[in-house]
# Entry
Amino acid sequence: MKRDNVGLISLGCSKNQVDAERMLALLAEDGFAICADIARCDAVIVNTCGFIEDAKRESIEAIFEAASYKNGGRLRALAVTGCLAERYQAEIAAEIPEADVILGMGSIGEIAAALRKALAGERVVAFGPKSGLPLEGGRVLTTPSYFAYLKVAEGCDNRCAYCSIPAIRGPFRSRRIEDVVAEAEGLAAAGVTELNVVAQDTTRYGQDLYGRLMLPELLRRLCRIEGVHWVRLLYCYPDRTTDELIDVIAAEPKIVKYIDLPLQHISDSVLTRMNRRGDAALIRGLLEKLRARIPGVAIRTTFIAGLPGETEAEFSQLCDFVREQAFDRVGCFAYSVEEDTPAASMPGQIDEETKRRRADRIMELQMGIAAELAHARIGTATEVLCEGYDDEAQCWVGRSPADAPDIDTKVYFTSPRNLVAGDYVTVEITGSDGYDVVGEETEADA
# Structure
């Protein structure tokens, strides 16, 4: 019996990508054939992002591009899932008739049945309670075979003034530690050697279930899994980056000395308007502690420029802070007005040009800092996870412990061996090119 082909386009963050992988597993279990070529698909899912204006625009474009395959093609059913679908339920149902299936966060577990109905000619629109979003189940990995994202919780309770995530994804819900470890063991058995631990607030993990922060204990358990080589922490909040967590990162060899710590600003007045916990003193103290107790730690952070009411003096504070701290990795976003968030109705809204200019200024500063840091690595050696051969650069390419997948820099290197993606090698850094570094595999590994 011929199976229907289904394809999936997933946008936005790694947490959304894990949701997409769970949907693919449900579809495979139901008898669908997973297909990467949309032109050959009977059904396609666009798993959308709705976090900021640029992401919403990208999601809408992807929906209409996928819908175009209905015109004289094989495609018979288009599904829209993810954050945009949850956030704009009535609008998408009314304004995008091309969407045959529209599922909110709490209904994505019904994806297989919904697509079956759509292929039979029925339109399906479902928005179950957010708590219905499945935290467990199989996954069809869409990452390379050697790394995966390990989502340990869903939702968020932080209520930052600019952010719509709690309204979209609901309250924070941790997974049981036994379930997370079992999934990680399965991933390792399938060949995954790098686990990237994610949640909306990874450092909050366990507090809702166990009454205390359980990320340190979870990390210890993950580090005992045979086959796991690197464990990486993403989306950590400064007020919950505890001494215990720092000690675990420092002590466990498998945990890469890297932390993703979204700080958003350094001005106390801006942080207060953002409804962020902790002030400039806490942030500076934490950064000092991290660097003192985890030698060589790479710190990634993100900032928001142009929050309503941000003065030139407050923005100058942020610029000075970026220069002072010389972060290894920085992203800066121009504030995006998100309806139904407290910041959207704040006085002192800043024009788009000014917001963009400020965000660009932060990234210009960081570009110079990153180039200096990359140059300073010349003459040092680092472990590198090989990601394959780059035909354009005519050499191998990979990531060091200081480089998270998709968002950070690369290491370009030569090797006397014929490597495969997923190999770990030691590379001596011999040069730099902007953010990236170049080198050669040391003879010890050759």
Observations:
- The chain has three domains: 5-132, 147-371, 381-441.
- The chain has a mean pLDDT of 92.
- The first strand starts at residue 5 and ends at 10.
